[in-house]
Amino acid sequence: MQAAKLLLTFVAMLAPARLVADGGTVQLRKEAGALVITVFTSPSPLSAGPADISLLLQQRNGLDPVLDADVSMRLRADASDTEIPEIHARPTRQQAQNKLLYAAPVTLSESGKWRLALTILRNGERTDASGTIDVAPAPEKALSYWSYIAFPPLMIALFVVRERLISRKARE
């Protein structure tokens, strides 16, 4: 019984590390013009390689979501020693799973600080916002799949604990 409690505690401690809200982590929140802009990134933590950048646009008064904007995004690495091209993307609601968000897939070529510049056009008004996001080095391939590798042995261990508990209860 003690082993089952220990195993359950271990699983409960690991589970929240894998949960993220809306597929990302909040990287930036800015008030610009009549808008409040929140930038989410995924994976968490954001690392070099493929990434998803999502935006939540809200009206400053009342925080109602803005669903009719035309958004463009530029990303530029702050690294001064290399010439990395700017990344241009057009986040749209069609690319987002959560239809309150504007999303765009991007590929970040290296780690470090990246400048994010947003241009939002809505009702003939232009709103610009910018900020910095941190990008971690790309994880090693094996480390990025650790949860898939650990799943089968974990299930086997849970099955063994279950069988021992059933056999112990049958003997009593």
Main features:
4-stranded antiparallel beta sheet, 27% helix, Immunoglobulin-like, 172 residues, 40% strand, elongated
Question: Termini separation (Å)?
Answer: 14 Å
The helix-strand sequence is HEEEEEEEEHH
Main sheet makeup? 4 strands, antiparallel
CATH superfamily membership of the domain at 22-138? Macroglobulin (MG2) domain
Mean pLDDT: 85
What's the Cα radius of gyration? 22 Å
Outline of the structure:
The protein has helices at residues 2-18, 141-144, 146-171; strands spanning 25-32, 35-42, 49-59, 70-77, 87-89, 101-108, 112-122, 125-135.
Could you explain how this protein is built, in words?
A hairpin with a 2-residue loop joins strand 1 (25-32) and strand 2. This protein has helices at residues 2-18, 141-144, 146-171, and strands spanning 25-32, 35-42, 49-59, 70-77, 87-89, 101-108, 112-122, 125-135. The strands form two sheets. The protein has a four-stranded antiparallel sheet, with no helix packed on it. A four-stranded antiparallel sheet has the order 5-4-7-8, with no helix packed on it. It has a domain at 22-138: Macroglobulin (MG2) domain (Immunoglobulin-like, Sandwich). The protein is built from three helices and eight strands. The chain is of the alpha+beta class and 172 residues long.
Secondary-structure topology with pairs:
Layout: H1 2-18, E1 25-32, E2 35-42, E3 49-59, E4 70-77, E5 87-89, E6 101-108, E7 112-122, E8 125-135, H2 141-144, H3 146-171
Antiparallel strand pairs: 1-2, 2-3, 3-6, 4-5, 4-7, 7-8
